[in-house]
Design goal:
- The complex is a heterotrimer.
- By secondary structure, chain A is mainly alpha-helical.
- In chain A, about 80% of the residues lie in helices and about 0% in strands.
- Chain A folds into 2 domains: about 20-120, no CATH class; about 135-330, Orthogonal Bundle (MetI-like fold), CATH 1.10.3720.
- Chain C folds into 2 domains: about 45-70 and about 85-90 and about 165-260, P-loop containing nucleotide triphosphate hydrolases (Rossmann fold), CATH 3.40.50.300; about 100-165, no CATH class.
- In chain C, the strands form 2 sheets. In chain C, strands 6-7-8-3-9-10 form a 6-stranded mixed β-sheet, sandwiched between helices. Chain C has a 4-stranded antiparallel β-sheet with strand order 2-1-4-5.
- The chains are: A mainly alpha, B mainly alpha, C alpha/beta.
- Chains in contact: A-B, A-C.
- Bound molecules: adenosine-5'-diphosphate (ADP) and magnesium ion (MG).
- Adenosine-5'-diphosphate binds near residues 55 and 60 of chain C.
């Protein structure tokens, strides 16, 4: 009897093999990345530039610094037996790739000008924009974010309320439907020339356009979200004594939230476009204006720098929205979380 | 009667707008009366200016769409079918996607000047991403079981592509197509407004310079009409191509 | 702790009086008659099963009694008062658990109290209801983390928290696997015996009706009318093999037009 049960026990253990050493091994990729960054630093520093670039030394120092940090991290992990954040370790291949791209870019621009000169900027020229022109660049980012935040917030709120009203009330939906169908296919940018006439300042015109670009998708998706709520959800709440208000705020809106977020994402994407254009055409500040200013001077490096900053800004804002969604809609995910 | 009711609101708005202009509540510089807009429409139509501009804008829109959409479709298919190709290109594309393509206008002007290439490039770039992303997504979401069944029946890879993968991805591709059409007009409006010497956007810009608000409104209406038309055609295509799909069956 | 909900009935069940009710739906101008002259009296504390072919109008009848819809013709009364709107004293449990996926189990069970603004003062009843259905440990789980049987139990707790005088059960066990179904049938019966509410149980499972109900009301095809009203005198707990039940089973199946050969 007892032997049988011990066999049983053995078998159940066999289902869960003994836990291996979970500490990750030596970070070979990290060492490789250190080497490629060092190589990039050497390429930048040692090969002669085609022209006098101000920031070649700084760029080489940065590349060298990254190489040194990676080397220290890799070796220290080995020697002192701690584990680097797994996030960092996972990015190892990217670290290698970035250094290789940097070196290649350096070679085809600053060192051998294989890519035609004014059209393509070298890495150190970009770096120079960041070190020398940062007040203006920073100021532009700030103004862009401010304008975007104002317009986006207004658009999102109005779109949400309007969409919820259209989805909830048959009467509102009945009247709003043709209006939405009429305005719907018209891209927000089509209003540009008119908005600058109709609004007292180009700032308020831009705000309106951004709000419109955001508001439309938010309205439509809130509407379809609210209209698509499982009718049984209402029955359940009604039999338990819920009033209209409860049905709207505690049933319709939470149930529509996934759809609302789709609208918020679409709105964010199109509001970026409108923001840039509004800044180019009307408001004389922000990244769009910076780009146009750089165009006036044919300052390619500034333009690339501004585009890079813009990519970071947009990615950052989208990431923030993603985080917010994951937080609010945690119930949607298949994750266990107690 | 029932079908006419929803149009009451737009008509009332129109009448109120006319009245407001008539009694000077709305100044002409801000919003011209509907009749003034109609007159302006007639004027530009008679002069032949309008048709020429519509023609050139439409050509730009569809040429750009064909180029951007074609590349987006091809790359989406390729990356959907080949893991290697996706590993190589997808993350780069996703990064570039975050830059609003209209931000490239100044750069494009420096590169191409204000010729046709600039506009084609912008439209193509704008259209590329929605089509690429939705094609990729469509291929990815083709039912695995259908694929396995097709293999089990010994279908050739070619036949699998045309009989299983492509039809399976089609609904998603159409989503991208319609989204892309929206972006196509959006882009063209801006591109023509900022750098062109012909086209509807140019007409609007030019009118703005000369404070002819009525013509500005006309051009907006034309854009709305063209946008609606393109969307309707896409819907029609969608419905005929996807008749097998239960979602569209009762439409 | 479990006391309030589970012990001797403080509130007696409601008496239901359905009188000459007919109902039809308007489908794009065409009328679909669903109920035809239904009269049904239910005494307080009874558990009556409504048995009928699929699509005959059982759910519709339940919705009328719940007050979710007014009958086209006739009257429905609870304790002598006309039913015009839903009321927390008459709670429905649907075939699908219809839990709100964005709320945790506890928040789902709290629904009725929250809707009536009683959550602050009577929140303890939520925990009692959860304990009653044995899901205390899952209070913070989300619906997608529950099995079908657990979700239906939560739905039951959500109904019970309102102290219903009438529980309307619309095929509540219809989608469960047969083992879970049998154990939940037992639980429902013992709960009903303890709490004394009146219950209307819609089902298309003859055995379920025989196992659980005081009375079985058999409905015809659509438009539904009452074909038979059979009282079952067997004491609880019942057993599936009980001699009296086998005969009843054959009789009811015959009424439903299904002649059994085994
Ligand atoms: N809201 C409604 N509108 C129109 N027809 C309905 C509605 N609800 C139910 N019906 C129809 O009424 C009939 C009875 O439905 P129901 O009461 O749900 O049957 P069951 O007995 O299966 O519960 C069905 O034919 C159904 O299609
Ligand atoms: Mg039913």
């Amino acid at each position: 009897m007892s032997s049988a049960s011990s066999v049983e026990a053995d078998r159940s253990y066999a289902d869960f093999p003994p836990v291996e050493d979970v500490r990750a091994g030596f970070w070979h990729v990290g060492l490789a990345a250190a080497a490629t960054w060092a190589l990039a630093a050497v390429v930048i520093q040692m090969l002669p530039d085609i022209d006098d670039f101000e920031r070649t030394d700084l760029l080489a120092q940065i590349a060298g610094g990254i190489a040194a940090l990676l080397l220290v991290a890799t070796l220290a992990e080995r020697l002192f037996r701690f584990t680097l954040p797994s996030k960092l370790r996972e990015q190892g291949a990217w670290l290698v790739l970035i250094s290789v791209v940097l070196a290649a870019w350096e070679l085809v621009t600053a060192k051998y000008t294989i890519l035609p000169r004014p059209f393509f900027a070298s890495p150190q020229a970009l770096l120079e924009v960041f070190t020398d022109d940062y007040p203006r660049l920073w100021d532009s980012v700030w103004h862009s974010v401010l304008l975007l935040a104002e317009g986006y917030t207004i658009g999102a709120i109005v779109g949400f309320i309007f969409g919820a009203a259209v989805g909830w009330s048959k009467a509102v939906g009945y009247w709003a439907h043709p209006v939405l169908r009429l305005i719907g296919p018209l891209p927000a940018t089509a209003w540009l020339p008119l908005a600058f006439f109709a609004f007292p300042s180009s700032h308020s015109a831009s705000e309106f356009l951004i709000a419109l670009a955001t508001g439309f998708p938010v309205t439509v998706l809130t509407w379809s979200g609210v209209a698509g709520v499982n009718k049984a959800y209402y029955d359940v709440a009604r039999t338990m004594g819920a009033n209209q208000r409860f049905l709207i705020t505690k049933v319709a809106i939470p149930a529509a939230m996934p759809s609302v977020f789709v609208g918020l994402f679409m709105g964010l994407g199109s509001s970026f476009s409108v923001l840039v254009v509004a800044e180019m055409m009307g408001v004389k500040s922000g990244l769009g204006w910076y780009l146009q200013w750089a165009q006036g001077w044919a300052a390619y490096a500034n333009m690339y720098a501004a585009l890079l900053v813009m990519a970071l800004m947009c990615t950052g804002l989208i990431t923030v929205l993603f985080r917010l969604r994951d937080r609010l809609l945690a119930w949607q995910k298949g994750l266990v979380q107690w | 009667m029932k079908r006419a009711l929803p149009w009451v609101v737009p008509v009332v708005i129109l009448l109120a707008w006319q009245a407001a202009s008539q009694f000077g509540v709305l100044r002409d510089q801000i919003m011209p009366a509907p009749t003034a807009v109609a007159e302006a429409f007639w004027r530009v139509l008679r002069s032949g200016e309008l048709l020429r501009d519509i023609e050139i804008s439409t050509w730009r829109a569809f040429a750009g769409f064909a180029v951007g959409g074609g590349i987006g479709f091809a790359l989406g298919m390729l990356n959907g079918l080949s893991g290697l190709s996706e590993k190589l290109t997808d993350s780069t594309l996703q990064m570039v996607r975050n830059i609003p393509h209209l931000a490239l206008i100044p750069l494009v002007i420096l590169w191409f000047g204000i010729g046709e290439e600039a506009k084609l490039f912008l439209v193509a770039l704008g259209v590329f991403f929605p089509i690429y992303v939705n094609t990729l997504h469509g291929v990815r979401s083709v039912d695995r079981q259908l694929l396995e069944m097709a293999r089990a029946y010994g279908m050739s890879e070619r036949a699998i592509f045309w009989r299983v993968v492509f039809p399976g991805a089609l609904p998603s591709i159409f989503v991208g197509l319609r989204y892309g059409l929206g972006i196509m007009w959006l882009t063209l409006i801006v591109a023509e407004t900022i750098s062109a010497s012909s086209g509807i956007g140019f007409m609007a810009m030019n009118a703005r310079e000369f404070m002819m608000v009525d013509v500005v409104v006309v051009s907006i209406l034309i854009y709305a009409l063209l946008g609606k038309l393109a969307d309707s055609i896409a819907r029609l295509l969608e419905r005929t191509c996807l008749a097998w799909n239960p979602v569209y069956a009762d439409v | 702790m479990v006391g309030n909900l589970a012990e001797a009935p403080v509130l007696a069940g409601a008496a239901i009086d359905v009188r000459d009710v007919s109902h039809r739906f308007d489908l794009d101008g065409k009328f679909l008659p669903v109920l035809s002259r239904i009269s049904l009296q239910v005494a307080p504390g009874e558990l009556v099963a409504l048995l009928g072919p699929s699509g005959c109008g059982k759910s519709t009848l339940l919705r009328l009694v719940a007050g979710l819809e007014p009958p086209t013709v006739g009257s429905v009364k609870a304790d002598g008062v006309e039913i015009t709107r839903p009321d927390p004293s008459r709670v429905v449990m649907f075939q699908d658990p219809t839990l709100y996926p964005w709320r945790t189990v506890r928040a789902n069970v709290s629904l009725g109290l929250e809707a009536r603004g009683l959550l602050r003062s009577q929140g303890h009843r939520v925990d009692e209801a959860l304990q009653l259905v044995g899901l205390t440990h899952f209070a913070t789980a989300y619906p997608h983390q529950l099995s079908g049987g657990m979700a239906q139990r939560v739905s039951l707790a959500r109904a019970l928290v309102n102290d219903p005088k009438l529980l309307l059960l619309d095929e509540p066990l219809g989608k469960l696997d047969s083992m879970t179904r049998v154990s939940m049938q037992k639980e429902l019966v013992s709960l009903w015996q303890r709490s004394g509410f009146t219950a209307l149980l819609v089902t298309h499972d003859v055995d379920e009706a025989l196992f659980m109900a005081n009375r079985v009301v058999v409905l015809s095809d659509r438009p539904a009318s009452i074909v038979a009203d059979i009282t079952i005198d067997q004491p609880f707990p019942r057993h599936r093999g009980d001699a009296g039940l086998t005969d009843l089973r054959r009789e009811i199946l015959g009424l439903l037009g299904l002649d059994v050969d085994w």
